[in-house]
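Let's study my pick:
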Amino acid sequence: MTGRLGVGSRPGSSRRRRLMPKALRGGRLHRAVVTAASAIGWANPIEAFCGIDRVLPDDTYVVSYPRSGNTWTRYILAYLARGTESTLDPETVNAIVPDAYVHAATINAQSQRRLIKMHEPFLDACPRVICVHRDYREALVSYWHFIRRSERYPGSFSTFLRSGIPVRHGSWKRHIRAMWRRQEADPATIHIIRYADLVGNFTETVAALVAWSGIGQGVDLAAVQRLTAMETVAGGEKEYVGHFRRISGESFFVDRGKGADWKACWSSEDLAWLARDRELMAIMEQLGYRWPG
């Protein structure tokens, strides 16, 4: 397959550990080292960066820039896989579609048809990939709200925008370029979801996901929509005291809709600063994200 690196290969945990001392793993320097190593075929970036022992040929990765609908898509996939007869709690969803950063042990214990969440733009190394994208301006506002609560970030949106936080998992541009590269190289192995389509045309959007993935044939999509609505998920999470509730006192999901207020957060100076990136403007236009909106 064109463009994929090391799928099904096993460079070995010792090689993965040697890429970076433990204290520095997971940061921007680690990502740069992994990217360079994967470019010359020395390491599979998913294995090297996320701690997954082996990328399997039937793996499907759910990939997005942060705050672009990844968790919503995970819940949708979990209900498609398990059915809608009962409400799924976050722990069950994490078992069905585990997070590569938090649940590597769960992933490594699974042996086939794994569904895995990831925010790294390592699409060339994914056997199959569901890629979710969202208007960058919306995603950044939601990201800011999330960081304020999860990391007690004290800065304004303008300060956040110009900080290094928005590129922790690679830039939005890099994610989109990786998506397009994979779509051109092997279109049958990538399924692209637009966040706005989940919001505005849920049934048709999820039906296309079912047809592509083969997961959820016959599942009631209206029930999936109801069970994965933000209010439903946030309400059902009250009995589950996970990491995010412990540090913030709130549901992980209250930020889902906050990107919609992006115009209230972006100042004219912020928009002018963003508009200096001509490549970004061209990508947004090509994706139909109107400027200035």
In short: The chain has two domains: 1-53, 56-264. Strands lie at 60-64, 115-118, 128-133, 190-194. The chain has 17 helices and four strands.
